[in-house]
Each structure stands twice: as structure tokens, then as C-alpha cells.
Design a protein that fits this description.
mainly beta, Pnp Oxidase, Chain A, two-stranded antiparallel ribbon
């Protein structure tokens, strides 16, 4: 069975081609982005004279935090943002930057040919957890990874990003 939008595409998009953008710039070295999840509470209501079953209605919707991970380098973008929420050593009353600690971010997914395929806008994000250094292990064999956990107030797909025209490659002449 083929996809209805692009009948020539038979595979879904892979999860390893993506970029993250905030403040109009791409963030270097992001190796993983947590999933976009939302959940809506269920409100049950039953009148006294109704049969023994409840009516279910949607209640409040919440959006899960999103974790971004990347290798530790000299780029300090994660730390700068985390420091806007709470900065050790700041003067009394200056620990939090109330003016600009929230940011909108964009998460972009690309097809195998490197063409933008899907984008999501995530609104009013702020850093609730920052890991500057991982556990260090002299006998380990891995990269040092830093991470931020972003609380957010919702996300939506950017429908202005249309399906790309995927290139076809000529088969070699026989």
C-alpha cells in the first residue's frame, strides 16, 4: 500500500535527519530530541437519573517536556538558556530573566535526500532541567553529553511545510 499524498513514497520518514532552531538560528550538535506528547484529561459526568454509565468529555490538555541532548563542546547555547531560568551567583532579584527565559523553537525533520519534510513549532519553552556534564568514567568509551529539558505550552505542525518533491536518480545505462 502506498501513501496517499506522495504515491511514489513507500517508506515513512526516518528519525535521524532533523534540526532544531531557536532565536532564528540552528542549534549545533543536537543528537536527540524527545518525542512530542500531549494528553487530555477525561472528565466523567453522570446525572442521578441516568443509567449507570458516565458521559466522558475532554478536560485540560497538557504537553510533556521535551529533552534535547548534544555532545559537550565549547558552544554554550544550552547553558545560556538554562541560566535565564536560574543563574547561580546573580544578585538578589536577578536570578531569573523574566523578560526572555521563554523561547519558541522549531523542530524540523528531513527526508533521506536532505529536503525539509515536516516541521513543528513548540511554544513558550523554558529550561526546567539542565545537565552540564554527564557522569564521567575513566573506563568509559562514549561522548560526554549535555541535555536540557524544555517545558512548553503547546506545539503544532507547520502546515506551510509541504511534502518535498523527492528526487529520482537515473538508472545506469545498460
Amino acid at each position: 500500500m502506498q501513501f496517499n499524498v506522495n504515491a511514489g513514497r513507500i517508506d515513512p520518514y526516518k528519525n535521524f535527519k532533523f534540526r532544531v532552531k531557536w532565536d532564528g538560528r540552528y542549534v549545533a550538535g543536537v543528537r536527540s530530541v524527545g518525542s512530542l506528547n500531549r494528553s487530555t484529561e477525561v472528565i466523567e459526568y453522570r446525572q442521578g437519573g441516568d443509567p449507570s454509565m458516565a458521559i466522558k468529555s475532554p478536560g485540560q490538555t497538557s504537553f510533556d517536556a521535551i529533552t534535547l541532548e548534544r555532545g559537550v563542546t565549547h558552544d554554550v547555547e544550552f547553558e545560556r538558556w538554562a541560566n535565564k531560568v536560574w543563574n547561580f551567583g546573580s544578585g538578589l532579584g536577578a536570578e531569573v530573566s523574566l523578560k526572555d527565559f521563554r523561547k519558541d523553537i522549531i523542530i524540523e525533520m528531513y527526508n533521506e535526500a536532505g529536503q525539509l519534510a515536516i516541521a513543528y513549532k513548540v511554544y513558550r519553552c523554558w529550561v526546567s532541567q539542565f545537565t552540564a556534564l554527564p557522569d564521567l568514567d575513566a573506563s568509559g568509551n562514549d561522548f560526554a553529553i549535555e541535555s536540557i529539558q524544555l517545558e512548553n505550552e503547546g506545539w503544532e505542525r507547520d502546515y506551510s511545510v509541504g511534502e518535498p518533491t523527492e528526487p529520482s536518480f537515473l538508472e545506469p545505462a545498460a
